[in-house]
Every structure is written in C-alpha cells, then in structure tokens.
Amino acid sequence: MCRQEVACGVLYNSQGKILMGLRTSHSEDGGFWEFPGGKREQDETIQHCLRREWKEELNLTIYIDRELYSCTMGDKYMCRFFIGKILDEEKIKMFVHEKIVFVDKTEMATLNMFQSDKQLLNII
Fold first, then answer.
1. CA distance between the termini of the chain
2. Which of 82, 66, 114, 96 is closest to 18 using CA atoms?
3. Alpha carbon distance 22, 31 (integer Å)
4. 61-87 per-position pLDDT tens digit
5. Of 13, 20, 23, 83, which one has the fewest beta carbons inside 10 Å?
6. What is the mean pLDDT of residues 90-97?
7. CA separation, residue 70 to residues 8, 82, 104 (Å)
8. What domain count does the chain have?
9. 10 close to 36: Cβ distance less than 8 angstroms
C-alpha cells in the first residue's frame, strides 16, 4: 500500500520559538496541537508542499533548512518533518487553526500533541 506523504514544519520565528497550531474542535483530530503542514499533491516536491501549505494556512513564507525526521502514521500516511525558519512572521494570519502559539521546547512538552509530534522533542 502506498502511503500519502505529509509535510510538517518545525519552524522558528526571530525569537527562536517554534510555531504550533491548534486543530479546530470540529476538524479531524480536533484539539491537538500540531506542526502545521499538509498533504503532498501529485507532481509536487515535498518541500514545495510545505511552502504551499504554510502560505495557504498561515500566510507565511518559510525557509526550509533540512529534513529532521520521518515516521508512518498507520497504513495511511508518511509524515516528513522539516526544520527551518519563518521569513515574514508579521504577515501571519489564521485560516485553518483555532489558535497559534510560539513556544520553546519546555512549553511545547506541555501541549496536547500527536505522539508522532512528541517524538520530535528528543530531536530538536
């Protein structure tokens, strides 16, 4: 079975904090904090996917440094996490998240996150 690729961004702002988005309560897996991103479209690189998703969901331009981690989520998804930085945080807008926060690693550990996302706490 071929898994759908999902790109997620572990992206820092100018103060060295990471942006996290709270999934809306009416969405699938609502109430969980996530590293924003989305599904790769056909004929799109995974890096382009991440740039597109951050622009669509948060109105932000990003710089991708490198791939940080990847994992599978059941039989359905292959999640690929990238580390980088936000280039224009003053333009931020929320289009799909209930709330967004900038947190450090200690604050991040207190958030209700997916298990796959929590794995990153040992890497970043």
1. 31
2. 82
3. 6
4. 999 999 999 998 888 999 999 999 999
5. 13
6. 95
7. 10, 9, 21
8. 1
9. no
Q: Which two tokens stand for residue 56?
A: 């669509």
Confidence of residue 1 (pLDDT cuts 50, 70, 90): low
- The SS3 of residue 53 is helix
Q: Where are the alpha helices (DSSP H) in the chain?
A: 46-58, 105-108, 115-118
- Given a contact cutoff of 8 angstroms between Cβ atoms, the answer to whether 28 and 103 are in contact is no
- Residue 39: both structure tokens together: 């599904």
Retrieve residue 15's tokens.
């103060």
3-state secondary structure of 35: coil
Strand stretches in the chain, DSSP E: 4-12, 18-23, 33-34, 37-39, 62-73, 77-86, 97-103
